[in-house]
Amino acid sequence: MSCRFKLITFDVTGTLLRFRRTAGEQYVETGKKFGHVLNANEVQNSFVKHYKVYDRAYPNFGSGSIGWQQWWRNVVSSCFIETYNGPGQLSESDIDKFFNDLIKSYSDNTGWKLAEGATELLEMLHSRNIMLGVVSNFDARLHNLLKEMKLYHYFKFVITSYESGLVKPDPKIFKLAESLASSSPSDIKIHIGDNFDLDYKAALDVGWNALLISHAFGKNESENDSSDLIFSDLNSVRRFLLRSDCLKSQNN
């Protein structure tokens, strides 16, 4: 296939990888390992709340401030302390056990699974010598996670918000990708992600093409009129790219 693509980048969470269970369910499983019974719904609500609290206090997983390890330990500690109903109080040793176990779970396929069609799409694009990259709001663990999930070798570069100090939808993170790909303004570039604002719109705003995975689109349907570029999974993206024999610019 003769292809005019210069670069295709991917989001990770919700696009290439999916969580095996909710944070509440995963935290409850961790609690059980150490003899503590928790309610998954309560923990999930607590997680969402404290994630937002620490994201406001120390943006981008604590990049340039407290660091990602302390950032996540704060979230974990706050969740368990708030939802713990057992006798006495949780000790720092308890929190350390919870934290270390969760870090391990979210470092491999214990906590993650491949999104449907991820390997097939990456293999198809890689076999056609299309440059692939990652642009993700993620902490520094992403490199090892992609290796554990057998995806890392597909990518020319992996940009994390934590390491770059740039958080989607900041246009500079896409400009960094262009620089790493030695891309010119006339090259066709595509970003694939599952968040309308952070992935789809952000890429379009810097002159890229963009494809959106549908579970994000369902929440923002009124914001977008390019329904032919919304997909249910990565298998449908692969079929679309094969049919189109390389996507032409959405602006043409």
Automatic annotation (TrEMBL):
Family annotation (InterPro entries): HAD-like_hydrolase_domain, HAD-like_sf, HAD-SF_hydro_IA, HAD-SF_hydro_IA_REG-2-like, HAD-SF_hydro_IA_REG-2-like_cap, HAD_sf
Cellular component terms per the entry's GO annotation: nucleus
Transmembrane segments: none
Protein's UniProt name: Rhythmically expressed gene 2 protein
Pfam families: Hydrolase
UniProt-listed SUPFAM superfamilies: HAD-like
